[in-house]
Specification:
- The protein is mainly α.
- The protein is built from 13 helices and no strands.
- The relative contact order is 0.26.
C-alpha cells in the first residue's frame, strides 16, 4: 500500500500521471472509502490465509493474483513495460523492499499476533518514513512539529505494546516482524526515489513490473522453505485470492487514480483509516480481544504520524519556511511509507 509522488520526476509505482480532462464515473470520496476498507480488511485476510497455508505461500498467492489484475490493466491500456537491465535490477530491489519482504513479514507475524495489532503496527510507517527522511533526504529539515510527532508516535507504540506491564502476553517476535515490515515501505520508497528516475515508462507499467518481479522472487523462495500443501482449504484460498486481487491489484489501481485526481497528500490520508478498520474487522469477525491500551495507543500513533506530515503555513512567497512543491511531495512520499500498505 503506497502513496507517493517523489520529487524530480521519479518514475515509481503509484506516481500521479498527467492530469486528464476525463472525469471519473465514481466520486473520489467513494473510491477513497473503498480503498480504506480494502486495505483495512487485508490484515484479516492475511490471518485467514495463514490458517490454511504457509506465510510464504500466502504472500506468493497474494502477489500472483495482484499481478494478474495489473497485467490485465496494462494490457487494456496497451502500456509498454520498462526496458533495460539496470531498470529491472532496481525494480527487483524495489519489489523486495516494497512487496516481497513486508508482505511475507506480515504473514509470518500474524501467525502469533492478532490482525488488529498487525494493522496498528502498519500505521507506524509514516513515523519510520519521517525518521528516515531526516537522515536520507538532505533537503528535508527537521522542525519542532515533526520531531514532536516522532516522539508522540513512539509513545503510542509503547502504549500499544503495554510497556508498563513488561510486554506481558505480547509475542515479541511477531510484533517485531510487523514493525520491521512497516519499516520496509519507507526504505523502499527512498530507494525508488534515488534509483528509478527517468525510466520513460508509465507509472502503471512500473507498478505492474514491480509486482511481477516480486512474484518471481516469491516463486523462487517459497519452494525452499515450504512444502506443497496436501490439501487446499477453500476459505483460506479465497482469502488469499481476495487479498491479491483486491488488496493488492485493485487497491493499487484505486490509489493510482486517487493520487492522479486529488494529489498524494489527500490520498495518503488513507493511512489513518487502515488501523481503525483492521481493528474493527479483527474484533467483529475474528473475535480477537484487545485491551484498552491497543485502541488508545493506535490513536496516539496516528496523532504522531499526522504531526510528522503536517506543514506550517507559509508566511509569504519568499518566506524562510518555503520549500518547493517537489520537495514537499518527496517528504510526503517517504513519510507515507510507501502503503500502505499492508
Amino acid at each position: 500500500m503506497s502513496t507517493a509522488t517523489p520529487a524530480r520526476t521519479v518514475s515509481a509505482p503509484v506516481i500521479a500521471p498527467p492530469p486528464t480532462t476525463r472525469r471519473p464515473a465514481v466520486d473520489w470520496r467513494i473510491r477513497f472509502a473503498l480503498l480504506s476498507l480494502i486495505w483495512g480488511f487485508s490484515f484479516l485476510l492475511i490471518k485467514v490465509g495463514t490458517e490454511g497455508y504457509a506465510p510464504f505461500q500466502v504472500t506468493f498467492g497474494r502477489l500472483f493474483f495482484g499481478t494478474a489484475v495489473l497485467a490485465a490493466a496494462i494490457a487494456f491500456r496497451r502500456e509498454r513495460l520498462p526496458r533495460g537491465a539496470r531498470t529491472w535490477t532496481h525494480l527487483a530491489v524495489a519489489a523486495l523492499l516494497l512487496n516481497a519482504a513486508p508482505f511475507s513479514l506480515f504473514a509470518y507475524a500474524e501467525q502469533t499476533i492478532p490482525s488488529t495489532l498487525a494493522g496498528i503496527c502498519n500505521a507506524t510507517s509514516p513515523l519510520w518514513g519521517m525518521a528516515l527522511s531526516l537522515v536520507a533526504l538532505s533537503e528535508d529539515r527537521p522542525t519542532r512539529r515533526r520531531v514532536a510527532g516522532l516522539g508522540v508516535g513512539f509513545l503510542g507504540v509503547l502504549t500499544v505494546l503495554g510497556v508498563w506491564q513488561g510486554f506481558s502476553g505480547l509475542d515479541f517476535r511477531g510484533t517485531a516482524m510487523a514493525l520491521v515490515a512497516s519499516l520496509c515501505y519507507p526504505v523502499g520508497w527512498i530507494y525508488v526515489r534515488r534509483t528509478l528516475a527517468g525510466t520513460g515508462s508509465s507509472n502503471l507499467a512500473m507498478t505492474g513490473s514491480q509486482l511481477l518481479v516480486a512474484t518471481v522472487e516469491l516463486a523462487l523462495v517459497t519452494p525452499l522453505f515450504t512444502a506443497l500443501p496436501r490439501s487446499f482449504p477453500v476459505a483460506p484460498l479465497l482469502a488469499v485470492a481476495a487479498l491479491g486481487a483486491l488488496g493488492t491489484g485493485v487497491a493499487l489501481l484505486l490509489q493510482y487514480g486517487l493520487v492522479a485526481e486529488v494529489g498524494p497528500t489527500t490520498a495518503q490520508m488513507v493511512t489513518y483509516f487502515i488501523p481503525v478498520i483492521a481493528t474493527a474487522a479483527g474484533v467483529a469477525l475474528l473475535g480477537e480481544s484487545i485491551g484498552w491500551n491497543t485502541p488508545a495507543g493506535a490513536v496516539i500513533v496516528l496523532a504522531g504520524a499526522a504531526l510528522t506530515q503536517s506543514r506550517p503555513r507559509r508566511r509569504g512567497l519568499n518566506g524562510g519556511g518555503r520549500v518547493s512543491r517537489s520537495v514537499r511531495r518527496a517528504r510526503s512520499a517517504v513519510a507515507s511509507g510507501g502503503r500502505g500498505q499492508s
